[in-house]
Write a structure and sequence with these properties.
Low-confidence stretches: 441-449
CATH topology of the largest domain: Rossmann fold
Radius of gyration: 42 Å
Protein name: GTPase Obg
Number of helices: 13
Distance between the termini: 127 Å
Shape: elongated
Structural class: alpha/beta
Strand content: 15-25%
GO molecular function: GTP binding; GTPase activity; magnesium ion binding
Family: Belongs to the TRAFAC class OBG-HflX-like GTPase superfamily. OBG GTPase family.
Helix content: 25-40%
EC number: 3.6.5.-
CATH class of the largest domain: Alpha Beta
Subcellular location: Cytoplasm
Largest sheet: 6 strands, mixed
CATH superfamily of the largest domain: P-loop containing nucleotide triphosphate hydrolases
CATH architecture of the largest domain: 3-Layer(aba) Sandwich
Length: about 500
């Protein structure tokens, strides 16, 4: 079972945004008091954080599928949906993050660095947020957009000052154990070290880290042994220490030939752009196992030849702890010089956020050919997001999308691109949203009527004072006209009072 993993692919799914709500407030004496639909919550992001307490990517190797929470939909009474919680994933310091295409997204080289690798979806607006003076009663809301879904690759590149390289069983792990408090696995068979081991060394006032890299053999660049896979851990090192086994009994091997083989394999390793090639960095040679008499004689014999190649040579024994103090101070000197050089380097330019150019329309139109004629594809963050937010089962929402696209200038751009009525237009990459373009319709208002209005909200049954006064005068005039008509008919003898009663006239009383 694997105990150390330095490269893994994560399958991520960020949270989707919640849908907006369509609601109309209802209360006593106000059955239709206006729209009150809340907004949907944003989906949770997935964030990587460099953590000193994490040393391997093993947990993500065993469980590579990770997802953050979705945003909750909006509700009535102006209640917005809950925002989905972010998913924070701790990774070792030195982790390089790349997307599915291999493009580097971030280099988490310092503890505490954070990067959002999967952005959550945006919550949709409710009809309360969409209402205004012209659109008093929206009958639609915006949908939440989906969050990022895809793969990212995590590659651990150990952050160490000095890397130990050499053949298997050369004593690299023993040297780490002798110079630091680390206790790597040590055995008397090759390829004991299957993953890098780190140790912290203190030399006087200097503290630095050393990394034991699994052994290299001739042909490692062609895939033999463990190959060059683990050399990614030496990319950040200031110096290389070649550990040479002077007590090996394998035929055809000697310290000089071993060093030449390691140098050839290091030269075959391609470092990332902008970094110093491995062979151009400071290099020291440690002739190990001089506690064996034959090895001590061999080390003294080949020392001049190796120094003639331009290397500083140290004769050491990890068992007897010989020569380790001198080696430790020599490495500390190189590390201090490299740190001083890096401190003198100019500070990287600050990131400047510039506003969008005035002539940037926010979208582009590409003309693509097909068997049915040209297809006009609209690409851009805004139109693609607007399409995702539109409920195409709601005519009013479709009309709102048409208005937004018209304000963005897609009509003029399509005309300039050569589109004609009935041309096929696609919004977004891939399949996208396909429709037949009709430039004569400025918006979809002609199809769905007066959008954003509701006659029930505009109705007001309460009469004004002037209307009640006019109604009273008309009623009084009608009563007087009826009395005059009855008097005229009685005087003309058209009818008499019932039961012999006589109608008394006001004139007779006078």
């Amino acid at each position: 079972m694997a105990t150390f993993v330095d490269q893994v692919t994560l399958h991520l799914r960020a949270g989707n945004g919640g849908h907006g709500c369509v609601s109309v407030k209802r209360e006593k004496f106000k059955p239709l008091a206006g729209p009150d639909g809340g907004n949907g919550g944003d989906g949770g992001d997935i964030v990587l954080v460099a953590d000193n307490q994490v040393t391997t990517l093993l947990g993500y190797h065993r469980n590579p599928h990770r997802a953050s929470e979705n945003g909750q939909p909006g509700m009535g009474d102006h209640r917005s949906g809950t925002t989905g919680a972010d998913l924070v994933l701790p990774v070792p310091v030195g982790t390089v993050v790349s997307d599915a295409s291999g493009e580097q997204l971030a280099d988490l080289s310092q503890a505490g660095m954070r990067v959002v690798v999967a952005e959550g979806g945006q919550g949709g607006l409710g009809n309360a947020a969409l209402s205004n003076q012209k659109r008093r009663a929206p009958g639609f809301a915006l949908l939440g957009t989906p969050g990022f879904e895809g793969d990212v690759t995590l590659e651990l590149k150990t952050v160490a000052d000095v890397a130990l390289v050499g053949f298997p069983s050369a004593g690299k792990s023993s040297l780490v154990a002798a110079m630091s408090a680390a206790r790597p696995k040590i055995a008397d068979y090759p390829f004991t070290t299957l993953h890098p081991n780190l140790g912290v060394v203190e030399s006087g006032q200097t503290r630095y880290t050393i990394a034991d890299v699994p052994g290299l053999i001739e042909g490692a660049s062609e895939g033999k042994g463990l190959g060059l896979e683990f050399l990614r851990h030496v990319e950040r090192c200031s110096a290389l220490l070649h550990v040479i086994d002077c007590a090996t009994l394998e035929p055809g091997r000697d310290p000089v030939s071993d060093l030449q083989v390691i140098l050839a394999e290091l030269a075959a390793y391609p470092v990332p752009e902008g970094q110093t090639p491995l062979l151009e960095r400071q290099q020291l040679v440690a002739l190990n196992k001089i506690d064996v008499p034959e090895a001590a004689e061999l080390a003294a014999f080949v020392r001049e030849d190796i120094e003639a190649m331009g290397f500083r040579v140290f004769e050491i024994s990890t068992v007897a702890h010989k020569g380790l103090r001198e080696l430790s101070f020599a490495l500390a000197e190189i590390v201090e010089a490299d740190r001083a050089a890096k401190a003198a380097e100019p500070v990287p330019e600050r990131i400047v956020l510039r506003p969008r150019a005035i002539d940037d329309a926010g979208f582009t139109i590409k003309v693509e050919g097909s068997h049915a004629g040209p297809v006009y594809r609209i690409l851009g963050a805004k139109p693609e997001r607007w399409v995702q937010q539109t409920d195409f089962q709601n005519d009013e929402a479709v009309g709102y999308l048409a208005d937004r696209l018209a304000k963005l200038g897609t009509e003029e751009a399509l005309l300039k691109a050569g589109a004609v009525p009935g041309a096929t237009v696609v919004i977004g990459p891939g399949a996208g949203i396909v429709f037949d373009w009709e430039p004569t319709i400025v918006s979809a208002a002609e199809l769905v009527g007066n959008r954003g209005t509701d006659p029930r909200l505009d109705r007001n049954d309460r009469r004004t004072t002037a209307e009640r006064r006019d109604e009273y005068h008309r009623r009084m005039d009608a009563k007087q006209a009826a009395r005059d008509e009855l008097g005229t008919e009685r005087e003309a003898g058209l009818w008499t009072d019932d039961e012999g009663f006589e109608v008394q006239r006001w004139e007779d009383e006078g």
